[in-house]
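Hi Y.,

Following your request, here is the sequence exactly as I used it, all 449 residues.
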Amino acid sequence: MFNPRGVAIIGASRKPGKIGHEILKNIIEYGYKGEIYPINPKADEILGKKVYKSILEVPGTVDLAIIVIPAKFVAEVLEECGKKGVKAVAVISSGFGEVGRHDMEEEIVEISKKYGMRLLGPNIFGLFYAPTQLNATFGPKDILQGNIAFITQSGALGIALMGWTILENIGLSAIVSVGNKADIDDDDLLEYFSKDEKTKIILIYMEGVKNGPRFIKIAKEVTKNKPIIVLKAGRSKRGAMAAASHTGSLAGSDTIYSAAFKQTGILRAMNVAEAFDWARAIAELPPPEGENTIIITNGGGVGVMATDACEDYNVKLMNLPEDLAQEFRKYMPPFGSVKNPIDLTGQASEKEFAGALKTALKDDRIHAVILLYCQTAITDPNSLADAIINVIKENGKTKPLVISMVGGKECAEAMKKLNLKGLPAYPIPERAVSSLGAYMKWARYIGKI
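Below is the corresponding structure, written out as tokens. Let me know if you'd prefer a different format.
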């Protein structure tokens, strides 16, 4: 499915705006290097590719078939895929279990099993896999490549978040829309991504699971090596009802899910921003080697806000020994503070920030750093971003560093520069602290700290 030698798009369309056209276009334009076979009985050529009337007419090997046709024809086409020797099918089509047609869903699963095919979906928007440059979705084309595998049970939300990751400069190793999960489930994908070298962290938008014991067993194994973040919807009674009508999923008791996540070391995010904030930090940073954290700031107010957040997210601020306090005093005026937060004061330029950051990175007693900047006329945010990048170039990513820049347009530009360099930066301090706290929580679970 993720490394196909050939891909067939059954239901490829000549009309821009049609799902069958957009998926074919994304596969071609994102740079997939395997063979591409559009299937449409009423066309000869689409987007410069020869079109076949049926998958049985395709001369080459087809490992993956993307099915974009009305639900009532899917079973017949699956039989043809099986006869062709297709290994995996992604059924984009809706109109199965989510609308009460469980008989049709069971039928396509049985056909897939008969031929030894794995079935993704139905009721999905497709899949993306960065290592093979395969964008077989009808979402945005230019997905940034990175180390986060994103599994989503919601199609529309998944597509929206694809666009959001581009805007937020978040790189992905994979995106998989699972829809009704008639065959391939979250636990199957967890197994795959646990062994995928390009994936460092797995993020799941989930409405429910079909095989709870298997999910728990696999998640326990995966979290020993790779963090899993879950955004679990259907927490409320009405939310659970909405989930059932959306993908036919039984959301189940939220208390049970919370207990299962705790037992398996899964990090549960409560909203989309939180989930991707955590994923960005964990994907880009080395794991913490201990609990001792310091805050470096040029503003007392954001330092206090971050201190409160550290208590909320169980991030432990260290008390600085005198020799270390003396080192930090070199980068502040006499009225600065070394009590942690280390307040360089509003007079701090990028030179003072760089000196304090170098000190923090070189001292083994410090295990993590939170760097906060409030925009002032003294220091240009872009110059500070450059200084931080240069310090990391010289010293390497030896420990977790999260950054928050509070200010206007210039701060947004500076944070974009930092994020593109793999240095997680956030517009408010609480989001930076939350991300570090999630990483610390996982490190504690696996016994690293």
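The mean pLDDT is 95.

Thanks again,
Q.
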